[in-house]
Amino acid sequence: MLQFNKVSFSYPSADFDIFTNLNLNFGHGWTGIVGANGSGKTTLMLLAAGELKPGSGEVMHSGLITYCPQRTDSPGPSENSLFDPYNYNADRERLCSQFEIEPDWLERWQTLSQGEQKRIQIAAAISLNPDILLVDEPTNHLDTYSAQIIFDALSKFDGIGLLISHNRILLNELCNRIVFLDPPDCLVFNGNYQQALEQKTVTEAAQANKREILQRKASKLQSELYRRSKQAEKSEKKVSKKHVKRHDSDARAKINLAKLTGKDATDKNLAANMNRRVEKIHQEIDKTRVKKRYKLDFRLCGEKCRRDAVVTIKAQKLCMGPEKILELPEIIVSPEDRIGITGPNGSGKSTFIRHLLSQLTLPPEKVIYIPQEISIEESRRIMSKVLELPSDQLGELMSFVSCLGSIPARLKETDIPSPGEIRKLCLALGLLNQPWLIIMDEPTNHLDLPAIELLESALENVESSLILVSHDQRFLSGLVNRNLQITRQDSVNSLA
Questions:
Q1: How many CA atoms lie within 13 A of 212 on its CB side?
Q2: Distances from the Cα of 464 to the Cα of 333, 335, 366, 455, angstroms
Q3: Between the CA of residue 462 and those of 334, 372, 447, 479, what are the distances in Å?
């Protein structure tokens, strides 16, 4: 059992509630938590896990809860327990085999790929046999093979599962219920992601139609209120003695009679009643909220590099760790190049990117580099840098972020933006300098679905050279004109 009962929550640094009187009841099976970056998905998970306490209301659960966060900065107790020889059992050996985890991975955690770290994290969580499993973005960084391993394991979990993901395939194949977070609204639908999205679309269309009908009705009532208010003004003037001569006793008597019989108040009362009807319908319109959907359309403002070559990499072999080598051919990146880099987890994609960055001779401000993960400390530094920008540059930056689906006012009030939002800020900061080269390692990680679609659309027309490392072939297919693939050959990986 996992229940949210009238839960309200806000962070101390914010002047708004992320959740207000939130009621949710999670049953067996997987529930997908979907929403834009910054909408409160991870906050919901932390409240469920007990790592955050609600401002009011309560979160109730029974049984063991295990939480797998987005980040894999360092191994926690459950990861260490997975490798503890004193806690050995057949189930853990089976999990390590299922997830293809090697015995020395814990010792060399910092040299593992993000995908390899994620496999350890998920396996360690499952090894605890939880009743409630909370998983935040499990397929970020994963190649297709690793993602299938994760899916197979999660699909066998028979407790209460909460899944945050922007992976439509995973949400469709794993979930039987979807929660859409769009503060202050929280919509819940049965079915997988596609089924829930269709229901949500119908609900929003009905809501929009209802609001439109109410607005037309309010407009008619407003016109009628104006007419009756004018009539009331005329009636009031008729019973006013201001313009009656002092000795005109007949006129004064008629006015007194009108006041005595209440005829003078008829039009005024009708106007007051109409005004109450108008106020009531406007209250109804306010309750019938329709989310404003911004047009996610802007042009990225990069420039074409003014050199003949952006960077030249000599043919060589790079050491990737014990008995592992990445073999590179000579690579010349031209100003027109839009390069996609692919390969399995741990094959050396990030190693190659780090080497490429060390060989760059471009002015630093002309390069945007967005790594797979950005640390909490670096996120704080970036946020401070953003808030120190001149007002005109801050406005331009926030317009980019807004087009990517985040709410600037809320973003400026947080000390640590979500991983998706910090990636948007990094991109926006770099764009202020008209970059010659944009390098993005797993660009779709942590981004919500509308932001991914926008980024894909915007990158199509950018004039900068592009280097994109991604497992998302659908994302790469329309963006690159050159592919570099890393293939494995025992201990030697080759980029070609």
A1: 6
A2: 12, 7, 9, 14
A3: 15, 21, 19, 10
2-9 and 19-26 as β-strands: parallel, antiparallel, unpaired?
antiparallel
Whole-number pLDDT of residue 372: 85
| Token couple for 240 | 């006013």
Q: What is the model's pTM?
A: 0.69
184 cis-preceded (ω within 30 degrees of 0): yes
CA–CA separation, 440 and 294 (whole Å): 25
Residue 44 three-state SS: helix
Show the CA angle centred on residue 136, arms to residues 68 and 141, nearest 5°: 100
Exposed/middle/buried for 246, CB within 10 Å: 0-12, 13-18, 19+? exposed
Return the structure tokens found at 428: 């926006």
Long-range contacts of 261-265 (CB under 8 A, 24+ apart): 264/235, 264/236, 264/238, 264/239
Q: Nearest Cα to 467, choosing from 366, 312, 353?
A: 353
Q: In this predicted structure, what is the pLDDT of residue 166?
A: 83
Mean pLDDT of each 10-residue bin along the chain, 496 residues long: 94 79 94 88 94 94 93 89 84 89 90 85 93 92 83 93 90 94 87 92 83 78 73 59 56 53 57 74 68 53 88 90 83 94 86 92 94 88 90 87 78 80 89 92 82 81 91 85 83 69
